[in-house]
Design goal:
Elements: H1 4-29, H2 32-35, E1 40-41, H3 42-48, H4 54-67, E2 70-73, E3 76-79, H5 90-93, H6 101-114, H7 131-138, H8 141-154, E4 161-165, H9 171-174, H10 176-179, E5 184-189, H11 192-204, E6 210-214, E7 226-232, H12 241-250, E8 252-261, H13 271-278, H14 290-299, E9 305-309, E10 313-317
Parallel strand pairs: 4-5, 4-7, 5-6, 7-8
Antiparallel strand pairs: 1-3, 2-3, 8-10, 9-10
Amino acid sequence: MKPPLEVLDENFSSMARISLFHLFQIGLKYGVFQSLSTPTPYDEFIESAPFSNRALLRRLIETYIKLGIVRREGNTIKASTFSYQFKLTPKNAERLTVDWIPVHEEMYRMVDYAFISSEHPKILMDFDKDSDFWDMRLSLEINRLYREVISSVAGLEDGMRVLDLGCGSVSPVELGRAVGPNGKYVGVDFSPGLLSIARTKVKELGMDWVELREMDVRRILPKKRYDVVIMSFLLEYLESPGQLVAKAIRMLDEGGKLVILEPFTEVSPYMPAWGFFESLTKEFVEFPSRENLLNRLDGLGVDARVEPLGNSVLVLQAP
């Protein structure tokens, strides 16, 4: 069996590469590259395009610019010469899970409806309205794997006190199970839809050491101390992730660990492509840079031992 961290990083990198391929398809399907074969005023292109959702079109063009697919010079934009190769070796292939592929294909299809309206009913990316979709997504093999990585890195065991920020609907069971029945797991999420699903699962399993709170994680106050604080797939929804990370470290007991699992931009140069599709969720900001986050924490005077693991895990241990 391949090391879980290597499997995780390989899958995240492949998600970014598949997203880039889908981004090419969008540009070809909607004639974006054809229209930009010659220098074109940016605003004129956006305003003349036959799309109701021009904000999404602008986000698409900005993504192309970040990736070097479109070049901006002053107020004009033009398609660039861009080469891309998806290389798959037997070694890479055996590390890939496959159940995330239909989800990414579904997000690609959702873009068609998003160009009509950001509120189109066939866009299934709202945490509350589409909580069943998110629960299915959080139950994928790749997501079970990242929770295994978190549990292993954090050293979760019976009796520990754990705070999980942005817990979703599945972690309360899978991570909560690791610290029970003598420990305490506190899961915090702003989505009542996802928490409702989680509460049903926890109640059915009789996990009375699991506590779930509906709250915007940015409002949490460091009143209690925990052995472990967890953030998984959370920072991409925050404008200032460093602020919450600094606060989370203050909530750790002596020697406690903050475990962050995130598809950082260091995973792949094509992360903006994946981010474009995730932005169908209105709360999405961008995938963070691990280097920028650490620089921000230095600026905030955070005192913690830092241990990067692979490309997608960051552990900060309190003194």
